[in-house]
Amino acid sequence: MPVAVMAEGAFSFKKLLDQCENQELEAPGGIATPPVYGQLLALYLLHNDMNNARYLWKRIPPAIKSANSELGGIWSVGQRIWQRDFPGIYTTINAHQWSETVQPIMEALRDATRRRAFALVSQAYTSIIADDFAAFVGLPVEEAVKGILEQGWQADSTTRMVMPKKPVAGALDVSFNRFIPLSGTLCLYIHLKHFIVLFFFFCHVSLFSLAPTL
């Protein structure tokens, strides 16, 4: 069974997702090929459909998992997403040499994660240490600071603090809303080199507090 074909240039990941789902449904004996499983699992992560990603991972035959290490690599990215470990998502994506059919999806996932991280920081922080911010968005410090200055944020080279520009009300990326639950308190664990910052993000009120390091 041929793997779903991606169109040249800009293409619809949603259309590709539909193709992969159909290929799995139509596969002889209900067992798809490793490339189809790989694309489908990566696409579920890209669309932040963690339930379908988890169910897919469970139904992929163990023999196919063990014979195709890329599937395990994709799922390891999913585990970082499930743990809300933003720095870990970037590290895990960059640690693998992805196949031609999966690489564009993982690159799109990395970019989408970075946008969500930017959105979270802009809403939750009035200021943040530049090194922590860079780890959160998966960029070198200099590149991260340059990017935020282009977006109208402020940065203090003396204190090495970044001051986010508050987003326009209602401008938060829809995909970010799916990534972060909209009710209750969300605990995000930012795994940095020397410490873990635990903070709470309230979605219905403009409150943010920094909790003690675990």
- Strand order across the biggest sheet? 1-3-2
Q: What's the multimeric state? A: single chain
SS element count, helices: 10
Q: What shape does the CA trace take?
A: elongated
Total strands: the figure is 6
Rg to the nearest angstrom?
A: 19 Å
| Mean pLDDT reading | 79
Defining key terms:
214 residues; alpha+beta; 3-stranded antiparallel sheet; 10 helices; 52% helix; elongated; disordered N terminus; disordered C terminus; membrane; PCI_dom; transmembrane; signalosome; COP9 signalosome complex subunit 8
3D architecture notes:
This protein is of the alpha+beta class. It has a domain at 13-108. The protein contains ten helices and six strands; from the N terminus they run αααααααβααββαβββ. The chain has a three-stranded antiparallel beta sheet. Helix 2 packs antiparallel against helix 3, helix 5 (69-82) runs antiparallel to helix 6 and helix 6 (86-94) packs antiparallel against helix 7.
SSE layout:
Layout (H helix, E strand, L loop, with lengths): L12 H14 L7 H13 L3 H10 L2 H6 L1 H14 L3 H9 L8 H22 L3 E2 H8 L3 H10 L3 E3 L4 E3 L10 H6 L5 E7 L4 E7 L5 E4 L3
Antiparallel strand pairs: 1-3, 2-3, 4-5, 5-6
